[in-house]
Specification:
The longest helix is centred in the N-terminal third of the chain and has 15 residues. The protein is elongated. The strands form six sheets. The chain has a four-stranded mixed beta sheet. A three-stranded mixed beta sheet has the order 1-9-8. Helix 2 runs antiparallel to helix 3. About 25% of the residues lie in helices and about 25% in strands. The chain is built from nine helices and 15 strands.
Length: about 375
């Protein structure tokens, strides 16, 4: 065979005085690199075959001594590739790397699936918090068999196909040696057990879907962008894993005249010309009830008054925002004859309106076009 004409030390990349441990380490590296299950390169099989032949000779003191003396393994009384004390490089790979060329099945605990739900809130409920109840469907362990799957009082039987391991080994002989492949048992699907007398409630699945009611305490200051997690209220885990969680989203109803901006509440206060010009004291609604607001004379349209502490509680940080009262001077759309005469007389007495010169004028213009 041509492979025996090559220098085995050169194939493994070790010196001629290499120790047994160095030879083993070198082969292990090459075997993993060139094994057909890890390398699809057409040349990989040949390189693996060379490394296998070199290792089988150099790892055996008697065979190594013969090789060092004669330089090959084809002399009478020698030993060829097929006469080594191994069944081929499949067996050597098995000895080094655990005996399986497929991933072993593991019954590891796995957390249950998470669920999602949405809670509808009124504007006031989002501001002050509330207690709610939600209904969800979730997978739980069967209450009759406690997740085993068998009829109460009976246990699942060991699978005879895999002897309870959950996986089967298939040996394949090829020109390159013997390969051992490990796959999930097709009969028990990796469980290692067979349910011969299933639970009448869950039909052997060990799980059931149930409708549950969950109480939720909604904290003050909730926003629609906020997401709440209910730990351990999701679906049952697998193989003893922990339960999943429930994630809550919130849908907050619009208020008929309040608008929320983070922790502040905005309210538009309509005033007529006389109230804005002469000033007044007017009742203003808040989420805590009505309160009196003093409007000074000469108040301009879009003027903002701040009522401190009448906003939304700040979630996780304490305190409350404010209520911002935005003045809207309302122009009457229809006038009686007497009212029109009064406005005409007033117009003759009032000076021509000038462009506002206060520093906030530009900001008010921007806000009208949504540029803030």
């Amino acid at each position: 065979m041509s492979i025996n004409r090559k220098d085995y030390y050169e194939i493994l990349g070790v010196p001629r005085n290499a120790t047994g441990e160095q030879i083993k380490k070198a082969f292990r590296k090459l075997a993993f690199q060139h094994h057909p299950d890890h390398n699809s390169n057409p040349e990989a099989e040949e390189k693996f075959k060379e490394a296998n032949a070199a290792y089988e000779v150099l790892s055996d003191p008697e065979k190594r001594a013969y090789y060092d003396r004669y330089g090959n393994t084809e002399e009478p009384g020698g030993f060829g590739f097929d006469n080594f004390g191994f069944g081929g490089f499949g067996d050597i790979f098995e000895a080094f790397f655990g005996g399986a060329t497929a991933t072993s099945h593991r019954r590891t605990p796995r957390k249950g699936d998470d669920l999602r739900a949405t809670i509808d809130l009124s504007f006031e409920e989002a501001v002050f918090g509330t207690d709610k109840q939600i209904e969800i469907w979730r997978i739980e362990n069967c209450s009759m068999c406690h997740g085993i799957g068998s009829k109460p009082g009976e246990n699942p039987q060991k699978c005879t196909d895999c002897d309870g391991h959950g996986e089967v080994r298939r040996v394949q002989q090829s020109v390159f040696g013997r390969f051992v492949h490990t796959t999930t048992c097709p009969r028990c699907h990796g469980e290692g057990t067979i349910i011969t007398n299933p639970c009448p409630q869950c039909k052997g699945s060990g799980r059931q879907k149930l409708k549950r009611k969950i109480s939720v305490k909604v904290p003050p200051g909730i926003e629609e962008s906020y997401q709440m997690r209910l730990s351990g209220e999701g679906e049952a885990g697998i193989y003893g894993g922990s339960k999943g969680d429930v994630y809550l989203n919130f849908n907050i109803e619009l208020h008929k005249f309040f608008v929320r901006r983070h922790s502040d509440i905005l309210y538009e206060l309509p005033l007529n010309f006389a109230q804005a010009a002469l000033g007044c004291e007017i009742e203003v609604p808040t989420v805590d009830g009505n309160t009196m607001l003093k409007v000074p004379q000469g108040t301009q349209n879009s003027k903002v008054f701040r009522i401190r502490g009448k906003g939304v509680p700040r979630l996780n940080s304490g305190g409350r925002g404010d209520q911002l009262v935005i003045v809207r001077v309302v122009t009457p759309q229809s006038l009686s004859k007497e009212q029109r005469q009064l406005f005409e007389d007033l117009a003759k007495m009032l000076p021509q309106a000038d462009m506002p010169k206060d520093k906030d004028h530009a900001e008010r213009i921007k806000s009208l076009f949504g540029e803030n």
